[in-house]
Write a structure and sequence with these properties.
alpha/beta, OB fold (Dihydrolipoamide Acetyltransferase, E2P), Rossmann fold, 3 domains, six-stranded mixed beta sheet, five-stranded mixed β-barrel, binds guanosine-5'-diphosphate, binds zinc ion
Length: about 325
């Protein structure tokens, strides 16, 4: 607890945050709109990360004179899934907290599978200690079309070797949807994907009451259902909570140092510490154990290629940021 609640305070979970107010789900399931005590703002780095979807909070109902309910304290988080906030300067955006799984939804084709997004999201989940899962939607379109950028088998094999279960599904025909649903039971699951991959169609196929539940949260914010761009936490089944996020355009890593990137590729772990140089960046250094493992077929060249790309990006980001902090830009 950051601050003790008053004896009258009650607990709730945050299901939506927008513009300084939030929607809470009380322990009996009631939804309630609340403001946030000013004193809580500023304790974390930015206002937007003080109260996040998935936070467990204490709230006071206010007195009889019609005061609005107010969040008074936030419980410690067991994990937090962040990204680099869109925009020029480096800032953290905490997307959701207290999660059991992160599910990356992509299409096999239309749009083509994006390894860039998949690896960023799974690295970020790994860095937060949250298990990841991969979903390839639109399998009815025949993903093994030779014109598709990558074969389904290659994709699934790369990620299963890294410890990420994969599913090929069709939101349209329902193929594989039941198995995915079973794999999500018993937890709070964050779904992330590029727009157009069929995430909304898939979630509607998994949870027929979804629109109704979203409508109930939107009714508390007074905003039209199509205007929201915020993440929403929904109890879609007695044993399953979903955090739905708007389709992402770009996803930047947050809180991962270039030198630590290899650690968020789980299949690299057995080779780390075996390079000739202790500060090996695993680029082209002689005696690099990761490169040797790639040459021997033990590490996927595609995952290694994505590591090189992300490492380059992180290094460019950190040099830009140190220039900025040094007053050079
Ligand atoms: P979102 O932006 O990820 O939420 O994507 P939508 O759910 O809006 O779907 C984008 C488009 O893909 C729509 O035209 C859907 O009808 C289509 N779509 C979604 N799932 C499937 C699928 O499994 N197979 C096929 N063929 N099309 C799909
Ligand atoms: Zn190395």
């Amino acid at each position: 607890m950051e601050t003790p609640g008053t004896p009258a305070s009650k607990t709730a979970v945050v299901v939506r945050v927008d513009f300084g107010a939030c929607v809470l789900r009380l322990d009996d399931g009631t939804l309630l709109r609340a403001t946030v005590r000013g004193r809580l703002m500023g304790e974390r780095k930015s206002l937007g990360n003080t109260i996040v979807v998935g936070d467990r909070v204490l709230w006071d109902p206010g007195d009889e004179r019609g005061q609005v309910p107010v969040v008074t304290a936030v419980e410690e988080r067991r994990n937090a899934f962040s990204r680099r906030a869109p925009g020029r300067h480096a800032a953290e955006q905490v997307v959701a907290v207290n999660l059991d799984q992160v599910v990356l939804v992509s299409a096999l084709d239309h749009p083509p599978f994006s390894r860039g997004l998949a690896d960023r999201v799974l690295c970020q989940a790994e860095s937060a200690g949250i298990p990841g899962r991969l979903v390839l939607n639109k399998c009815d379109l025949g993903g093994d079309d030779p014109a598709a950028r990558e074969s389904t088998g290659e994709i699934l094999d790369d990620y299963s070797r890294a410890g990420y279960p994969g599913h090929t599904v069709s939101a349209q025909t329902g193929a594989g949807v039941g198995e995915l649903l079973d794999a999500c039971r018993g937890g709070r699951i964050l779904f992330v994907g590029h727009s157009g991959v069929g995430k909304s169609t898939l979630l509607n196929a998994m949870f027929p009451a979804l629109d109704l539940l979203v409508g109930q949260v939107n009714a508390k914010t007074g905003r039209g259902r199509h205007t929201t761009t915020a993440a929403t936490l929904l109890r879609v089944a007695p044993d399953l909570e979903l955090v739905d996020t708007p389709g992402v355009r770009a996803f930047g890593l947050w809180g991962i140092e270039p030198a630590n990137l290899a650690q968020v590729y789980p299949e690299f772990h057995p080779r780390l510490g075996q390079c000739r140089f202790s500060d090996c960046a695993h680029f082209a250094e002689p005696g690099c154990a990761l490169r040797i493992a790639v040459d021997e077929g033990l590490i996927s060249p595609r995952r290694y290629g994505s590591y090189l790309k992300l490492r380059g990006e992180l290094q460019a980001d950190s040099s830009r940021e140190s220039l900025r902090q040094g007053g050079w830009t």
